[in-house]
Predict the structure.
Amino acid sequence: MDERVTRAAGLIRTVLDFPKPGVKFRDITPLLSDVQAFRGVIDVMAEHAPAGLDAVCGVESRGFIFGTPLALRLGVGFVPIRKPGKLPGTVVEESFDLEYGSTTLAMHIDALQAGDRVLVVDDLLATGGTLQASKRLVERLGASVAQMQVVLELAGLPGRTLLDAAGVNDLYSLIRVDE
């Protein structure tokens, strides 16, 4: 395994019973505070990104942390995918279920152009609902998802299966752990 990935994986800690009993929360803050590990994560993600991208879309909020420097590294713009009520302009929205609730995501209707190829970035893949909704938002704007990337995939949960069924052809997970 790449030493940059090994270093990053060793910094992610598991917090039991957060935000509710029975949930294992994966805390990335130790990774973010280690500049070499954080830089290594961005470098590895950039190395696995497809060529010919028009934008990186990051999912609120931790997808912003990784998506913004990745967009800079790739030389493309960054597009935020946000929670409802956080964007000032006209938006498209998608609602979906989470592990422990439901929510909605939104994008500005002019954030992408028809035919754009985008990379969607988030910190975690668990059940897949967030990334599936993100894909639908991108496609509603006439763009296509060239790839999805996550820092951490909980391999014991159905996220990858859901995304495969939704037509996600290229999913890169930096770190995969059993739930």
Remarks:
- The CA atoms of residues 42 and 70 lie 6 Å apart.
- The chain has one domain: 52-177.
- The domain at 52-177 is CATH 3.40.50.2020 (Rossmann fold).
- The beta strands are 13-16, 24-27, 55-59, 77-81, 91-98, 101-108, 117-125, 144-154, 171-177.
